[in-house]
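In this supplementary section we document a worked example of the pipeline. Step one takes a protein sequence of length 113 as its only input; no multiple sequence alignment statistics are reported here. Step two produces a three-dimensional model, which step three serialises into structure tokens for compact storage. The input and output of this example are shown verbatim.
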Amino acid sequence: QVQLVESGGGLVQPGGSLRLSCAASGFMFRIYVMSWYRQAPGKQRDLVARIFVDSTTYYVASVEGRFTISRDNAKNTVDLQMNNLQPEDTAVYYCKYDAGGYWGQGTQVTVSS
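The serialised model returned by step three reads:
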């Protein structure tokens, strides 16, 4: 069955960095678009970044230039490198296999001094 397992969240000070990783299994990873979303307390779950089959990428404006999404088709992983984190980046981050509509369990990112 499809599984998406995120890791790498935690507590970081403003200006710090974290790297999230999502390990995928149960589907032909290399031929599908993958995305990272986030959900802050009391808010809806929003798209953060997307990576296409040819590794082209899309970022929402608020993370452009600070976050980098990447994929390793040999390892079936999709990562999100997050730099210069700010308090407004605090959220639960989710990996999504878009075409199948599957979500990971989420990983908490907290940016606070």
